Amino acid sequence: NVKDAARLRRGPAGAGPGGSVPELPLLLLCKTYAHQLLAVNDEEFLRGAPLAPGEVRELVDALRPLLYRLYWTQALPVPGQGAVPAQVQQQQAALVQQLERDPGAGVLRLQLLEAATRVFNQLAERNERRGFMPPEAWHWPALGPRDLDVYLDDAAGPGAAAEGGLEGHGAGASFEFSDARAKEVLSCLPQVVPFARR
Do 71 and 114 contact (CB within 8 A), yes or no? Predict the structure, then answer.
């Protein structure tokens, strides 16, 4: 039920045993709805198949904070992810310990991350075509002013003479995010960041 899923936007407090979000029903909703969206054209979608427009808005309102939590505030560490703030490293270490005690929860979390991302992106793509919600409805709470900063990773050394490099830098030069989570967010969910900040 979308109305049950919409309650998730208030966060995990009191939602289940130990304050955990009831992720299994939301996972089932996301996987089912993602398949249904593949079979529905834009006209049918706007007429309310398979969910009414109000229910779609409720679903987006439920998925947006969930994805913010899964990608940003409680993001799992990624091997070779690079720099993340010290506070995030502590949170990630605690989360990994928790998931080591309950591996099934980790699998469920990753499946929910994939399914929620898929539905959120499918709905955002429809919104780009049909404009049933304002762009601000997709944005996350304000990220810090430095969260999306990039720096030049000059792997080949400054001024290395190599074809295809960035101006004044070698071919191995590339841009890196100061916070590794930003790369995942902008790769998987660019619509959650206002276009001017991307």
Answer: no
Residue 124 near residue 169, CB atoms below 8 Å? no
Low-confidence ranges of the chain (pLDDT < 70): 1-21, 78-83, 145, 149-175, 198
Query: Which tokens in the block code for residue 20?
Result: 């955990």
> What is the rounded distance in angstroms from the CA atom of residue 130 to the CA atom of residue 46?
8
181 close to 152: Cβ distance less than 8 angstroms: no
Q: What is the pTM for the complete model shown?
A: 0.75
Stated as kind and residue range, the H or E segment containing 7 is none
CA–CA distances in Å: residue 178 to residues 30, 148, 153: 32, 7, 10
Question: For residues 36 and 130, what is the distance between their CA atoms, to the nearest angstrom?
Answer: 18
Cα Rg, the chain, nearest whole Å: 19
